[in-house]
Structure formats: structure tokens, C-alpha cells
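Entry type: protein chain
Record version: 2
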Amino acid sequence: MASMVGTAIEWYDFFIFGSMSALLLGPVFFPSDNEWLSTMASMATFAVAFFMRPLGAVVLGHFGDRYGRRKVLVVALLMMGLSTFAIGLLPSYAKIGVLAPILLILLRVLQGFALGGEYGGAVLMVVENAKAQGRRGFFGAFLGAASPIGFLLATAVIALTASLTTEEQMTEWGWRIPFLTSAIMVGVGLYIRVKLEESSEFHRIQSEVAKSAEPQQRIPFIRLFREHPLEVLKSILVPVGQFAGYYLTTVFLLSYARNSAGFTIEASNSLAMIAAVSFLIFIFIGGYWSDKTVRWLPMLVGVVGFAFAIFVMFPLVDSRNYGFAAIAFALGLAFMGLLYGPLSTYMAELFSGSVRYTGVSFGYQAASAITGGLTPVISVALLDQTGSWVAVAIYATVMMLVSVAGMLIRRNHNNWQAA
């Protein structure tokens, strides 16, 4: 629970920007006569953080494997919280011109770096606990649940702010409130996180690595590619579908519902909240299921299911009927939940203990850089060029097939017991 709370707060900070980039930040920082161009620029800034996440994974993963998971998690939370709070204080383009989007991009870079080291450490604090033995899939799902919980917090704060302001006020100054409230949540997260203790598994790993006679053996990133090249490939390919499906639903489809289907900010935001609830439920279903069968089975059902569902989701939103649109959002993230629930444990079991933090973090964040931030931008570009959502659905299906290919590489490989 302690790991989940801290990670949920980090995701809150990250998702605040994602939701705002889809709904409001375009005109504030990238004003343009072309509404889609303004939105695309805002989403490109959202994507910037994803390119920094692999670097954060390597740097923070190194320290996490060498000196402990807890210390790195505290640093990551502080970095994320301070950068999010600073975004809430930024002047708009109308006030300081081009300096506004430049500062926004720099703060997004810091957010991405921080989140790059968060995922692996938080996962390992849970699944390396001796009490998780035999139930790693279920307990790992709690870390997966941090994502929709953070998203629900973000959308709830945005919904509350939107309900208390007019659309004009929301565009003028209301958008700052969700960013500034992160300071309170980060304070709570730090209080909880500093009380965590390292697992006995990490102390055992640290003792074994310290005995190594080769200096390069003490550098996790070098060991990772020397000893686990195939696992690194798997760890990048498998999450590709997760990032593509998730951000296509929560960022692009959210923007599509607002700009193409004509839903209000409040309605669009509530659709995203419905999706997050569906995601949360199916994360636990997927995690629990993975303990009862091979780890990859519920994940496979998730990616294949999404590949079919995407061709139904857009027509449901285009109906302009709120109930049908809600089904579309819930359906997409139900399948993504089946994939995401077991994913953290699946990733952790790919690597031996001495490189586990670096391996989990790097693979996951490399996948995020490939598809996470780029998916909304590519989707907007495809829609703008073709005038049809079909091209977006085909792109999503290809990304699901990439995940399937990753799962088929040595399907049941497990390095958990290796030193």
C-alpha cells in the first residue's frame, strides 16, 4: 500500500499534464488559428517526457540496484512533485511569448526523468517482499493500480475545478489549480515513502554483488546487456501495446471526444474517469489470473482484445451518445487492464536480482518512449491527414501485434531465482 500510494501521486502529477494537454494547454502555450495544430503542439510537449524516461531509468536504476530502492524512490517523488508545482506557476504564451513553451518543455523533461526511475523501484519494493511469494501477480497489480488511481485523482481534481469555474476562467487561470495541488499530495507521499524499509532480497543481492572481483560487474547497465540481451528485447516489446492502447484511449480519444464528437470538458473528463475505473478493476483481474496460469495468458487476451475493440470504440464515440461513448472508454481500458495487471511482475521475473531495477525500468521506459508519448501525436497526425479514425485504429492494431511478438519470444523464461 505504501508503494502504491507514492506511485499513484507520481502518476497524478504525470496525468494532470496529459489531460490538460488534451483539453486546455494548447491555446495557453501554443496559440494557433488551427485548433488541431495547437492540440498537436501541446501533445508533442506531452511526448517530450517519454523520451527522457529511458535516461531516468538508466541513471536512477543504477543507483537503485547499487544503493537501494527506497532512497531512489524518495528522490524520484521529489523531482516529480517540484516540477509539477512549477508548471502551475508558469506564465502563459500571451504573457512572456516563446519563453513560456520552452520552460514548459524543460519541466516536462524533468517529469519524464523522475518517472523513469519510479516504476522499477516501486514494483520491486512489493514483489521482492518474501510475503509476496506465490502471489506476485496479484501484489504486483497494486503497483499497476497506482496508474488509474493517479489518473482518477487527476481527473477528479480537474472535474472539480471545471465545475467551479467557467470555460473562460478555466482557460485563463483555472488550469493551474490541479498542478499546484500536487504539493499537498507529494508531502503525503514523502511521509509514507521515507518509512519504507528495503526488502531482505535486496540486501542479499547487494552482498553478492559486493563480492564480485570485476569492476564492470558492479555496473548494472553493463551486466544487463551482457547477461540478458533477449530479456531486454522482451521487456521493450511487450509494453509497447500497453502504452499505445492506454494513451490512445486516455489522451487521444479524450481529445477526439472533445474536438470531433463535441462533448463538453466536463463530459469528456467524466468519460476518462469511467475508463480509469474499468482499468483499475481489470488490473486486479489480470494480476490475480496470472497467478493461476502462465503469466502471459491474460496479457495476450488483453492485447488481442484491444486490437478488435478499437474498431468499435470510435463509432461509439462518434454516435455523440454519452452512454455509448462511456462503453467505448471502458472497453478499451478493460483490455489494457488485463495486460497491465500482470505486467510489473512479468517484467521483474525476466531479470536476475542484481540488475532487476535497471532491467525493469529501462525496458518499460524504452517502450514508453517508442509509443507512449508519440501515440497521441501520431494519432492526431493520422486523423488530420486522412480525415478518418480508421488509420488510427490500424496503427493501434500494429502496436498490439508488436506486444504479441514480444510475448512469443521464449514465453515462460523466468530469471527470478538467478543471482
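Comment: The chain has one domain: 2-408.
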